[in-house]
Amino acid sequence: MSATATKTVVLEILRQDTTDATPYWEKFELEYRPNMNVISALMEIRRNPINADGKLTTPVNWDMNCLEEVCGACSMVINGRPRQSCTALIDQLEQPVRLEPMRTFPVVRDLIVDRSRMFDSLKKVKAWVPIDGTYDLGEGPRMPERKRQWAYELSKCMTCGVCLEACPNVNSGSDFMGPAPLSQVRLFNAHPTGAMNKDERLNAIMGEGGLANCGNSQNCVVACPKGIPLTTSIAALNRDTTVQMFKNFFGSDHMVD
Amino acid sequence: MSKDREFYLRRLHSLLGIIPVGLFMTQHFVVNHFATRGEESFNTAAHFMESLPFRFFLEWFVIFLPLMFHAFYGLYIAFTAKNNPQRYGTFRNWMFVLQRFSGVFLVVFIAWHVFETRFQAALGAEVNFNMMADILANPFMFAFYVLGVVTATFHFANGIWSFLVSWGITQSPTSQRISTYVTIGIFLALTVVGVQALLAFV
Ligand code: HEM
Ligand code: SF4
Ligand code: FES
């Protein structure tokens, strides 16, 4: 808690003007206020965009939405670790506070990244429960309450991208979709109605950039701010795809069961 | 190489690491251990292995081809990773890094070892106790072989751990922790067997 005693907050921010511009570091020194978080510090820079050299600069761009760690939009690399900036309290951070974009994703500007690849992966693995039809399909099977509670934990994923940033196998040289969409497959396959399409999801993650790219560094489960048991999900899917693989080859003409 | 086959290639890579390559390595270490019972025992054991029927078939299908597939695909896997142990210094992340480093070192070690022994045999040299004793008389070579043995046992033991995850056998954190302890035991046991055999040649 050394920051409480100091009068200023020093931030070093890796800035980038456009998608393919060269990044550069810029330093800012702000007046300390109690209970600041990284977002309120960034807002202070936006209000008064003067860097540590006393020069007028452009305000730093970042993304945010819920401000309570449920949307994932404000994720960035803070002092070397990817996390949400809305819950990163200045009092708990070592100074200078170094902010970088999550460069696993394409940088749009400054701290804003484009997480489209995650949303594309969710589409690819069909991370939803299909219920549309030409007639009313009626109620689905009931879900046991204890299973619902367990599934709720998996459903907390906010597609923030921290687990992809933490994973050594998600990078520009690989098309691995990363842990988050995989764990969503486990969630939707556990849903009693969603399970009616589980073979489609399993076959999707057995395709390009899928499950097999995991190399078990287990960084994701350490990094996930929502405490999602990502490595357990991956191991469980490894078993499900083992079974699916044999079913695909030796199985009869049935699909789901 | 079609990316759609990635899943099957990875599973094949994982399987071949244990069966046959890992089992062959264990068998190889056990046969080498005859050296601790003296020159004659080793030569008899090595000669027995050499004179197995279908030797050509066994060597290519149980050793060379599976090992080559595992090694080359392993190099591809190793070089696609962007290691980050300075960001996450956890045990598992270090094991991830070491699995890749040990794999890359094994390519060098195994290539050299095969050149010095099996390749020379193909050129007419006799592989026996004296050949190994000559090689290991050089302290640098001895150190290189000890490093090679330890790297191989580490890679195999840690590979058993990740094999169990890759096929969905160990899922829960508890089962994965216990398999860590068991594979550390396998690492230590195989290392003792391997290094004792090396010491018997000097
Ligand atoms: C010769 C050079 C070798 C290279 C370059 C190599 C490379 C690799 C790499 C990169 C992995 C990690 C795969 C992943 O996490 O997805 C791996 C796994 C493994 N390796 Fe090797 N390896 C080599 C030799 C060996 C040998 C000699 C053995 C057996 C004694 C072996 C047994 C294994 C096993 C059992 C795995 C675990 C498979 C899995 O993760 O499911 N490897 N290897
Ligand atoms: S699994 Fe966790 S770290 Fe990964 S995107 Fe979802 S919330 Fe973020
Ligand atoms: S603003 Fe939504 S998680 Fe931070």
UniProtKB/TrEMBL annotation, chain A:
Its cofactor is [2Fe-2S] cluster; [3Fe-4S] cluster; [4Fe-4S] cluster. SUPFAM superfamilies: 2Fe-2S ferredoxin-like, alpha-helical ferredoxin. GO terms for biological process: respiratory electron transport chain; tricarboxylic acid cycle. Residues 148-176 form the 4Fe-4S ferredoxin-type domain. It comes from the Bacteria. GO terms for molecular function: 2 iron, 2 sulfur cluster binding; 3 iron, 4 sulfur cluster binding; 4 iron, 4 sulfur cluster binding; electron transfer activity; metal ion binding; succinate dehydrogenase (quinone) activity. InterPro entries: 2Fe-2S_ferredoxin-like_sf, 4Fe4S_Fe-S-bd, 4Fe4S_Fe_S_CS, Beta-grasp_dom_sf, Helical_ferredxn, SDH/FRD_Iron-Sulfur, Succ_DH/fum_Rdtase_Fe-S, Succ_DH/fum_Rdtase_N. Its EC number is 1.3.5.1. Keywords: 2Fe-2S, 3Fe-4S, 4Fe-4S, Iron, Iron-sulfur, Metal-binding, Oxidoreductase, Tricarboxylic acid cycle. Gene3D superfamilies: 3.10.20.30, Alpha-helical ferredoxin (1.10.1060.10). NCBIfam families: dhsB, PRK08640.1. Belongs to the succinate dehydrogenase/fumarate reductase iron-sulfur protein family. This is succinate dehydrogenase. It comes from Paenisporosarcina quisquiliarum. The gene is sdhB.
UniProtKB/TrEMBL annotation, chain B:
The chain crosses the membrane at residues 12-31, 57-79, 91-115, 135-157, 178-201. Pfam families: Sdh_cyt. The keyword RNA-binding does not apply. Its main location: membrane. Keywords: Heme, Iron, Membrane, Metal-binding, Transmembrane, Transmembrane helix. It is found in: Membrane. Heme binds at residues 28, 70, 113, 155. NCBIfam families: sdhC_b558_fam. This is Succinate dehydrogenase cytochrome b558 subunit. It comes from Paenisporosarcina quisquiliarum.
